[in-house]
Amino acid sequence: MAKSKFKLVIGDAGALNQVKAVIPSDLAKKKDHTYVSVAEPLAQHIMREIDKGSIIRYPKTVGKPKQGDLVIEALDELAIRKNKEIAKFRQQINKLFLSMNLMDMYDFMMINNKFNSLGHFIHEGNKEEVYLAIINSGDEQLVTDLENYLTAMEELNDINKRYKRYRDDIHRIVDAKDDAELDDIINSLGNL
Q1: pTM as predicted
Q2: 90 three-state secondary structure
């Protein structure tokens, strides 16, 4: 039997499995995802339905779904618009996370560990006191580390603030009652 070229990415929807995406089999490598192999004609059918904005589910009792097992729920125009806007917004937040340099994050954690090992435990209640102790220590490398730490902390705080705004804005989009309200929300969002 030929190996399937496509896999469904499956999510839990109560008594049903929900198809989150259809991907090429060679991309199905994440251990925290559930995949189900399907034949190409069924994969193409599901992709067309997803492109139309439909939600595709099938009973959990079915191992490998066939077209007759699928429960296809067409969304109304407002729901489709909401999903498209959320997808655009999600792209912005993904770009934001990708812009964060992982090496800077690593350096931040290593500097924090260094401070902790030297007895400089920085938290909201004592940060100014600890910063002054490091500055007054006379150790130029510690002062440089503190500067790098503060720069990274500022970047992380900015990203965290923008992520929280993203999360709140997604809820606003989901809760929109009609097209006019959704338009108002979209127009007020701007970029992250």
Answers
A1: 0.57
A2: helix
